[in-house]
Amino acid sequence: MTRHEMLKGKIALVTGASRGIGRAIAQRFAAEGAMVIVAGRQAGESDDDPGTLRETVALIRRLGGSAMALQVDLDDPAQCVALVPRAVQAAGGFDILVNNAGSAEYSSIESMPLEVFDRTVAHYLRVPFMLSKAAIPVMRERGAGWILNLGSVTALAPVRPFHEFERCGGATAYAAAKAAINRFTEGLAAELQADNIAVNSVAPSTAIRTPGSERFIPDGYPVEPVEYLVETALALCSTPARQRTGCIAHSLHFPLAAGLDVFGLDGAGKLPPPVVPAWAHPGLLRSDLQEG
Protein backbone atom coordinates (compact mmCIF):
# COMPACT_ATOMS: atom_id res chain seq x y z
CA MET A 1 0.00 0.00 0.00
CA THR A 2 2.75 2.45 0.90
CA ARG A 3 4.74 4.41 -1.66
CA HIS A 4 7.76 5.66 0.29
CA GLU A 5 6.68 4.74 3.83
CA MET A 6 7.37 8.34 4.82
CA LEU A 7 5.42 7.88 8.06
CA LYS A 8 6.40 4.29 8.87
CA GLY A 9 6.37 3.79 12.63
CA LYS A 10 4.52 7.05 13.24
CA ILE A 11 1.12 7.43 14.91
CA ALA A 12 -1.20 10.25 13.83
CA LEU A 13 -4.29 11.61 15.58
CA VAL A 14 -6.63 13.27 13.08
CA THR A 15 -9.77 15.08 14.26
CA GLY A 16 -12.86 15.42 12.12
CA ALA A 17 -11.81 12.28 10.24
CA SER A 18 -15.21 10.75 9.57
CA ARG A 19 -15.45 12.53 6.22
CA GLY A 20 -14.05 15.29 4.04
CA ILE A 21 -10.55 16.67 4.44
CA GLY A 22 -9.91 14.88 7.73
CA ARG A 23 -10.73 11.51 6.19
CA ALA A 24 -8.56 12.24 3.15
CA ILE A 25 -5.59 13.15 5.35
CA ALA A 26 -6.08 9.99 7.40
CA GLN A 27 -6.14 7.86 4.25
CA ARG A 28 -2.99 9.44 2.83
CA PHE A 29 -1.07 9.19 6.10
CA ALA A 30 -2.06 5.53 6.43
CA ALA A 31 -0.87 4.94 2.86
CA GLU A 32 2.55 6.18 3.95
CA GLY A 33 2.74 3.73 6.84
CA ALA A 34 1.27 5.67 9.76
CA MET A 35 -1.10 4.11 12.25
CA VAL A 36 -3.95 6.62 12.24
CA ILE A 37 -6.28 7.40 15.14
CA VAL A 38 -9.39 8.87 13.55
CA ALA A 39 -11.52 11.02 15.84
CA GLY A 40 -14.98 12.45 15.27
CA ARG A 41 -18.59 12.54 16.39
CA GLN A 42 -20.14 9.91 14.15
CA ALA A 43 -18.97 6.43 15.10
CA GLY A 44 -21.28 4.47 12.80
CA GLU A 45 -22.85 1.07 13.26
CA SER A 46 -21.31 -0.70 10.28
CA ASP A 47 -18.34 -0.31 7.96
CA ASP A 48 -20.50 1.06 5.17
CA ASP A 49 -22.27 3.76 7.19
CA PRO A 50 -21.46 6.90 5.17
CA GLY A 51 -19.72 9.77 6.88
CA THR A 52 -18.67 7.79 9.95
CA LEU A 53 -15.46 6.78 11.67
CA ARG A 54 -16.19 3.11 10.98
CA GLU A 55 -16.33 3.81 7.27
CA THR A 56 -13.03 5.72 7.43
CA VAL A 57 -11.31 2.88 9.30
CA ALA A 58 -12.73 0.32 6.86
CA LEU A 59 -11.47 2.32 3.85
CA ILE A 60 -7.97 2.44 5.34
CA ARG A 61 -7.85 -1.21 6.37
CA ARG A 62 -9.20 -2.36 3.02
CA LEU A 63 -6.00 -1.07 1.43
CA GLY A 64 -3.77 -2.61 4.07
CA GLY A 65 -3.42 0.41 6.32
CA SER A 66 -3.70 0.64 10.08
CA ALA A 67 -6.36 2.72 11.85
CA MET A 68 -8.49 2.90 14.97
CA ALA A 69 -11.44 5.14 15.88
CA LEU A 70 -12.15 7.32 18.90
CA GLN A 71 -15.61 8.84 19.07
CA VAL A 72 -15.54 12.33 20.57
CA ASP A 73 -17.64 15.49 20.64
CA LEU A 74 -15.10 18.31 20.76
CA ASP A 75 -17.86 20.79 21.60
CA ASP A 76 -17.92 19.14 25.02
CA PRO A 77 -14.93 20.54 26.97
CA ALA A 78 -14.65 17.41 29.11
CA GLN A 79 -14.48 15.17 26.04
CA CYS A 80 -11.99 17.52 24.39
CA VAL A 81 -9.70 17.42 27.43
CA ALA A 82 -9.94 13.62 27.54
CA LEU A 83 -9.12 12.99 23.86
CA VAL A 84 -5.32 13.10 24.08
CA PRO A 85 -5.14 10.82 27.16
CA ARG A 86 -7.53 8.42 25.42
CA ALA A 87 -5.33 8.39 22.32
CA VAL A 88 -2.24 7.76 24.43
CA GLN A 89 -3.97 4.92 26.25
CA ALA A 90 -5.24 3.39 23.01
CA ALA A 91 -2.07 3.66 20.95
CA GLY A 92 0.72 4.22 23.46
CA GLY A 93 1.22 7.81 22.30
CA PHE A 94 1.27 9.64 19.00
CA ASP A 95 3.65 11.69 16.89
CA ILE A 96 1.31 13.79 14.75
CA LEU A 97 -1.75 15.86 15.68
CA VAL A 98 -3.97 17.17 12.88
CA ASN A 99 -6.42 19.81 14.13
CA ASN A 100 -8.98 19.52 11.36
CA ALA A 101 -12.39 19.31 13.08
CA GLY A 102 -14.79 22.23 12.83
CA SER A 103 -18.15 23.28 11.46
CA ALA A 104 -18.34 26.67 9.75
CA GLU A 105 -21.37 28.88 10.36
CA TYR A 106 -21.55 31.96 8.14
CA SER A 107 -23.48 35.09 9.03
CA SER A 108 -23.02 38.83 8.86
CA ILE A 109 -21.68 40.26 12.11
CA GLU A 110 -24.82 42.30 12.60
CA SER A 111 -27.07 39.25 12.53
CA MET A 112 -24.74 36.67 14.10
CA PRO A 113 -25.95 35.38 17.49
CA LEU A 114 -23.31 35.43 20.21
CA GLU A 115 -23.52 31.65 20.60
CA VAL A 116 -22.60 31.20 16.92
CA PHE A 117 -19.60 33.49 17.33
CA ASP A 118 -18.54 31.59 20.45
CA ARG A 119 -18.85 28.25 18.63
CA THR A 120 -16.76 29.57 15.74
CA VAL A 121 -13.95 30.66 18.05
CA ALA A 122 -14.20 27.38 20.00
CA HIS A 123 -14.04 25.18 16.88
CA TYR A 124 -11.17 26.95 15.18
CA LEU A 125 -9.05 28.32 18.02
CA ARG A 126 -10.02 26.98 21.47
CA VAL A 127 -10.10 23.28 20.51
CA PRO A 128 -6.75 23.41 18.64
CA PHE A 129 -5.29 25.21 21.67
CA MET A 130 -6.57 22.56 24.08
CA LEU A 131 -5.45 19.60 21.98
CA SER A 132 -2.07 21.12 21.16
CA LYS A 133 -1.43 21.95 24.82
CA ALA A 134 -2.18 18.36 25.81
CA ALA A 135 -0.14 16.91 22.93
CA ILE A 136 3.07 18.83 23.62
CA PRO A 137 4.32 16.71 26.56
CA VAL A 138 3.39 13.52 24.69
CA MET A 139 5.48 14.57 21.68
CA ARG A 140 8.32 15.93 23.80
CA GLU A 141 8.62 12.57 25.53
CA ARG A 142 8.81 10.85 22.14
CA GLY A 143 11.62 13.19 21.06
CA ALA A 144 9.79 14.82 18.13
CA GLY A 145 6.36 15.67 16.83
CA TRP A 146 4.20 17.50 14.32
CA ILE A 147 1.13 19.66 14.87
CA LEU A 148 -0.85 20.61 11.77
CA ASN A 149 -3.68 23.13 11.88
CA LEU A 150 -6.25 23.52 9.11
CA GLY A 151 -6.36 27.08 7.87
CA SER A 152 -8.37 28.97 5.29
CA VAL A 153 -7.62 31.38 2.47
CA THR A 154 -10.27 33.63 4.04
CA ALA A 155 -7.67 34.43 6.72
CA LEU A 156 -6.00 36.76 4.22
CA ALA A 157 -7.13 40.37 3.94
CA PRO A 158 -9.95 40.91 1.43
CA VAL A 159 -8.89 41.96 -2.05
CA ARG A 160 -10.03 45.45 -3.00
CA PRO A 161 -12.38 46.44 -4.46
CA PHE A 162 -14.37 44.11 -2.22
CA HIS A 163 -15.86 41.05 -3.92
CA GLU A 164 -19.47 39.99 -3.50
CA PHE A 165 -18.41 37.21 -1.14
CA GLU A 166 -16.61 39.64 1.17
CA ARG A 167 -19.57 42.00 1.22
CA CYS A 168 -22.35 39.44 1.62
CA GLY A 169 -20.82 36.00 2.29
CA GLY A 170 -20.92 36.18 6.08
CA ALA A 171 -17.43 34.73 6.59
CA THR A 172 -15.97 37.55 8.71
CA ALA A 173 -16.01 35.79 12.10
CA TYR A 174 -14.87 32.50 10.58
CA ALA A 175 -12.06 34.28 8.72
CA ALA A 176 -10.97 36.07 11.89
CA ALA A 177 -10.70 32.74 13.73
CA LYS A 178 -8.67 31.28 10.86
CA ALA A 179 -6.36 34.30 10.89
CA ALA A 180 -5.91 33.71 14.61
CA ILE A 181 -5.01 30.04 14.12
CA ASN A 182 -2.34 31.06 11.61
CA ARG A 183 -0.76 33.40 14.16
CA PHE A 184 -1.15 30.69 16.81
CA THR A 185 0.68 28.31 14.47
CA GLU A 186 3.59 30.69 13.96
CA GLY A 187 3.93 31.49 17.65
CA LEU A 188 3.71 27.88 18.79
CA ALA A 189 6.29 26.92 16.15
CA ALA A 190 8.73 29.34 17.77
CA GLU A 191 7.97 27.94 21.24
CA LEU A 192 8.49 24.30 20.22
CA GLN A 193 11.26 24.29 17.63
CA ALA A 194 13.90 23.50 20.26
CA ASP A 195 11.82 20.44 21.24
CA ASN A 196 11.89 19.21 17.63
CA ILE A 197 8.12 19.68 17.38
CA ALA A 198 7.03 21.25 14.08
CA VAL A 199 3.87 23.35 13.95
CA ASN A 200 2.41 24.26 10.56
CA SER A 201 -0.85 25.19 8.88
CA VAL A 202 -2.37 24.13 5.57
CA ALA A 203 -5.37 25.56 3.75
CA PRO A 204 -7.05 25.21 0.37
CA SER A 205 -5.74 27.74 -2.15
CA THR A 206 -9.30 28.21 -3.43
CA ALA A 207 -12.08 25.87 -2.30
CA ILE A 208 -12.50 22.14 -1.77
CA ARG A 209 -16.00 20.70 -1.87
CA THR A 210 -16.67 18.57 1.23
CA PRO A 211 -19.84 17.56 3.07
CA GLY A 212 -19.20 20.44 5.47
CA SER A 213 -18.36 23.13 2.92
CA GLU A 214 -20.69 22.38 0.03
CA ARG A 215 -23.50 24.56 1.38
CA PHE A 216 -21.22 27.60 1.07
CA ILE A 217 -19.94 26.83 -2.44
CA PRO A 218 -22.17 27.98 -5.31
CA ASP A 219 -23.23 25.43 -7.90
CA GLY A 220 -20.77 25.41 -10.77
CA TYR A 221 -17.94 27.00 -8.80
CA PRO A 222 -14.65 25.36 -9.90
CA VAL A 223 -13.28 23.58 -6.85
CA GLU A 224 -9.88 21.92 -6.46
CA PRO A 225 -9.13 18.23 -5.76
CA VAL A 226 -8.40 17.42 -2.13
CA GLU A 227 -5.24 15.49 -3.03
CA TYR A 228 -3.13 18.65 -3.37
CA LEU A 229 -3.95 19.77 0.16
CA VAL A 230 -3.38 16.25 1.51
CA GLU A 231 0.04 15.93 -0.14
CA THR A 232 0.99 19.29 1.36
CA ALA A 233 -0.17 18.04 4.76
CA LEU A 234 2.02 14.95 4.36
CA ALA A 235 5.07 17.06 3.52
CA LEU A 236 4.47 19.29 6.55
CA CYS A 237 4.10 16.28 8.86
CA SER A 238 7.19 14.39 7.68
CA THR A 239 9.83 17.14 7.69
CA PRO A 240 11.74 17.77 10.96
CA ALA A 241 11.11 21.02 12.80
CA ARG A 242 14.70 22.15 12.21
CA GLN A 243 13.95 22.15 8.47
CA ARG A 244 10.39 23.45 8.36
CA THR A 245 8.15 24.89 11.03
CA GLY A 246 5.82 27.88 11.29
CA CYS A 247 4.77 27.39 7.67
CA ILE A 248 1.40 28.77 6.51
CA ALA A 249 0.91 26.66 3.40
CA HIS A 250 -1.75 26.50 0.71
CA SER A 251 -2.75 23.45 -1.28
CA LEU A 252 -1.96 24.50 -4.85
CA HIS A 253 0.78 27.00 -4.15
CA PHE A 254 2.94 24.93 -1.80
CA PRO A 255 3.51 21.93 -4.13
CA LEU A 256 4.60 24.33 -6.86
CA ALA A 257 6.90 26.29 -4.56
CA ALA A 258 8.43 23.16 -3.02
CA GLY A 259 8.61 21.07 -6.21
CA LEU A 260 6.34 18.51 -4.59
CA ASP A 261 4.92 15.53 -6.48
CA VAL A 262 1.26 14.86 -5.68
CA PHE A 263 -0.23 11.36 -5.49
CA GLY A 264 -3.65 9.83 -4.90
CA LEU A 265 -4.97 9.16 -1.42
CA ASP A 266 -3.73 5.57 -1.66
CA GLY A 267 -0.18 6.75 -2.46
CA ALA A 268 -0.46 5.67 -6.09
CA GLY A 269 -1.35 7.45 -9.28
CA LYS A 270 0.65 10.65 -9.72
CA LEU A 271 -1.48 13.74 -10.31
CA PRO A 272 -0.51 16.54 -12.69
CA PRO A 273 1.19 19.60 -11.20
CA PRO A 274 -1.34 21.99 -9.71
CA VAL A 275 -2.56 24.96 -11.70
CA VAL A 276 -3.21 28.12 -9.72
CA PRO A 277 -6.37 29.71 -11.14
CA ALA A 278 -6.56 33.40 -11.98
CA TRP A 279 -9.09 33.98 -9.20
CA ALA A 280 -6.78 32.73 -6.42
CA HIS A 281 -5.87 35.34 -3.81
CA PRO A 282 -2.90 37.35 -5.17
CA GLY A 283 -1.15 37.33 -1.78
CA LEU A 284 -0.71 33.56 -1.68
CA LEU A 285 2.16 32.83 -4.04
CA ARG A 286 4.67 35.04 -2.26
CA SER A 287 3.78 33.49 1.12
CA ASP A 288 4.22 29.89 -0.05
CA LEU A 289 7.42 30.63 -1.95
CA GLN A 290 8.92 32.03 1.23
CA GLU A 291 7.92 28.96 3.24
CA GLY A 292 8.49 26.29 0.59
**For the terminal residues, how far apart are their CA atoms?**
28 Å
The CATH class is Alpha Beta
Report the principal-axis shape. globular
Structural class: alpha/beta
Number of strands: 7
Description of the structure:
This protein is of the alpha/beta class and 292 residues long. The protein has one domain (11-291): Rossmann fold (3-Layer(aba) Sandwich), CATH 3.40.50.720. Helix content is 40%, strand content 13%. The chain has a seven-stranded parallel β-sheet with strand order 3-2-1-4-5-6-7, sandwiched between helices. Helix 1 (20-31) crosses helix 7, helix 3 runs parallel beside helix 4 and helix 4 (114-142) runs parallel beside helix 6. The model has no long low-confidence stretch (mean pLDDT 93).
Question: What keywords describe this structure?
Answer:
7-stranded parallel β-sheet; 13% strand; alpha/beta; 292 residues; globular; single chain; 9 helices; Rossmann fold
Give the secondary structure arrangement, pairings included.
Blueprint: E1 11-15, H1 20-31, E2 35-40, H2 53-62, E3 66-71, H3 77-91, E4 96-99, H4 114-142, E5 145-150, H5 164-168, H6 172-192, E6 197-203, H7 226-236, E7 248-250, H8 253-258, H9 284-291
Pfam family, one: adh_short
Family: Belongs to the short-chain dehydrogenases/reductases (SDR) family.
Keywords: Oxidoreductase
